[in-house]
Amino acid sequence: MNRSEADVYKLTALVTGGERGIGSAITQALRKDGITCTVTGRSKVRPTHLDPDVDYKALDFLDPLSVEDFSRYVREDLKPDILINNAGFNSVAPIAEMSSSLLRDIMEVNLIGPYLLTQASLPAMIANEWGRIVNISSIWSVIGNSGNSAYCASKFGIDGFTASLASEVADKGVLVNAVAPGYTATEALKSKYSQRQIEEVSRQIPVGRLGEPEEVAEIVSWLVSPKNGYVSGQNICVDGGVTRTSHPLRRWT
Question: Which residue in the list 56, 151, 183, 230 is annotated as catalytic?
Fold first, then answer.
């Protein structure tokens, strides 16, 4: 089934971690495009700030039963046209101090969870001969960050997964890409860094500021739209120029 901008077919999207931060901005951008969105979060109670038109499902990537049940729902009932693997988890520690349980948690959320949801989403996309998958990676899927080896391993893994899957399903009408945000002005970042730290890291970004969640969302919106029929297998950095310049960047965790 070929899609064009003139199609009246109603597209549906699943956005993990879509209730806040970059995920929320992506959800809002997709809804502006007329796409019906389902978002996930860890809370068993629907967040009160969500628009009533957005469907909410609880999903805990650290609970195997939750992932199994939700994957079944995605495969049998939701059958999204678009999958945004956005939910992520980070914990910073030197490799000598990284526990095996914490390492597994990072991999479960950042790599294994997206893999399993992609498995669940693909059958309907392939049957429809149209689908879009975007994995939200990180600049730490492109460059290393000292003291952050587990997170980098998971995000480099997402980049490899994206490239491999893109090759596997492109001839079936499914395009797969990753988007790699740099330092982005989410509430989570603002709560983690002091104003002085934000100002210092901003000076080290070539454009001189943090990114906005909406700037990441606009790239995702285009990648999943009918306008994109040829871009696949890419990991697109939205980072103010950090990863492609010689501008020095202190490794902030």
Answer: 151
